[in-house]
Amino acid sequence: MTKKVLIMTQNFYPVIGSAGNRMKNIFQLLNDQKGMEVHVLTTEPAYPNKSMYSNDDLWDDEAVNRETEKINRIPIKNKRFSNHIFSRLFFYVEIMYRFFLKLFELKKNKYDYILVSTPPIFIVLSAFIGRRLFGAKLILEVRDLWPDSLLGVKAFDHPFIIRIFRYLEKKMYRNADYIVINSKGFEDHIVSKLNKRKPIIYLPNGPRINELVKDKVKKEEFSVIYAGNLGLAQDVNRLKSIAILLNNHNIRFDVLGYGIKTNEFKTLLRENKLNNVHIHEPTTRKKSLNIIKNSDLGIAFLNDEEVFSTVLPGKILDYMTCQTPIVAGVKGTAADMITSNKTGFVFDSDSIDAMINKILELKNDKQQVDMLEENCYYTITNRFVWENNIDKLVEIIK
C-alpha cells in the first residue's frame, strides 16, 4: 500500500540557502522510495526577493521541474522579503491562512503523513488542521529553535508576545508524533519542553552523492571564501574586519552571500577599495559548490548569543563537501563538529587577529591543508550523505 506524504514548508527549490535545498532533497529521496508518494505545499520562491527567481538559471533541476503535479506553490503578495518584525509576522500569518485554505482543496488526497518544517512556527499551526482533515500523523521538522533565535538576533523582544510564542513552541513539540532535527544541539532544548518522551530523529544537512568532491584541484592563487547568509545571526561586522585584513595581506577573499546585510557589506568594499575581495551574486547550489571547491579555506561566523551554540550551519557542511578546511568563529555544536573531526580550526568569534594568523599559517603549510582536506572528505562521506541518512525518515513512514 502506497504511503502518501505532504511536505509543508516555506522554503523549497529553487529558493537559495540550506533550507530550500534540504526540503528538495527530502522530497526527491522519499519519492524515490517504493511505496511512497510525496507532495509539497510551499510558497512561490521569494527569498531574499521575489524578482530574482524570474531568472531561469536558478530553475536548474529538471527532475524537480517535471514534478509540477506534486508541487503546490502558493502565491504571495510581498515582492521583497521584509526584515521588519511586524511585517514579517503578517507575512507568516498570511502564509498560514493560505496554507489552511489549500489544505481543504487537497483533502481528497488523504495523506498518511504531514511533514512540516519550522521555522516559521505559523505553518505548523496550519499543519495541525491538516492532520485533522487527513487523519494523518505529524512529523515536525525543526531547523531552528524559535523564538529563541528571534531573541538571539535582537529583532524582537516584546515580553507578552514572546510568552505567546513560547506557549505555541511547547504545544508544537508536544503535538507532533515525531520530531526531526538537523542539529544534535537542539535535542536537550526540545526534550525540556515535552511532557512525555517521543521519537527525536537526527537528520543533518549534507551533500548528495553526486556533489561530493573527490579530487581537489590545486591552483596557484591562494583564496578564502565565505558562503552563506549575511544576516543578523552571522555577525557581519566581524566578517568586515576579516575582509579588510585579508585584503591587506593580498589574499583573495570570495564572498558568496545574500541577506539583509549584503548591501552594507558591498558599501564597505566600495568605500575601502578592497580589490582583493570579490562578492558574488546568489546562484544555484551547483555553481556555489564549484566556487567553494576552488577555494583553499572557508570562513564561518555566528554571533555570541547562546541559542546559536546549538546550530550546525549548512555552510560548514558545504565547505567539507568541497574539501575546503574551515576557520571559524563559532562555539557549541559547530565548534565540536570542526574540532572533533579535525576539519579546521575554531576561535572565539571576536578573535579576528588569531583567525587571520591561522589563515596565514595554513597558506604556507600545504601538508597541513592536505590533511585537513582528507579529514573533510572522510567526515562528510561517512556521516552526512543524504542517500544514506534518508533511511532514518523512511523508517518512520514505512
Automatic annotation (TrEMBL):
<feature type="domain" description="Glycosyltransferase subfamily 4-like N-terminal">
    <location>
        <begin position="33"/>
        <end position="206"/>
    </location>
</feature>
<keyword id="KW-1133">Transmembrane helix</keyword>
<dbReference type="InterPro" id="IPR001296">
    <property type="entry name" value="Glyco_trans_1"/>
</dbReference>
<protein>
    <submittedName>
        <fullName>Glycosyltransferase family 4 protein</fullName>
    </submittedName>
</protein>
<dbReference type="InterPro" id="IPR050194">
    <property type="entry name" value="Glycosyltransferase_grp1"/>
</dbReference>
<keyword id="KW-0472">Membrane</keyword>
<dbReference type="Pfam" id="PF00534">
    <property type="entry name" value="Glycos_transf_1"/>
</dbReference>
<keyword id="KW-0812">Transmembrane</keyword>
<dbReference type="InterPro" id="IPR028098">
    <property type="entry name" value="Glyco_trans_4-like_N"/>
</dbReference>
<dbReference type="Pfam" id="PF13579">
    <property type="entry name" value="Glyco_trans_4_4"/>
</dbReference>
<feature type="transmembrane region" description="Helical">
    <location>
        <begin position="113"/>
        <end position="134"/>
    </location>
</feature>
<feature type="domain" description="Glycosyl transferase family 1">
    <location>
        <begin position="215"/>
        <end position="375"/>
    </location>
</feature>
<dbReference type="GO" id="GO:0016758">
    <property type="term" value="F:hexosyltransferase activity"/>
</dbReference>
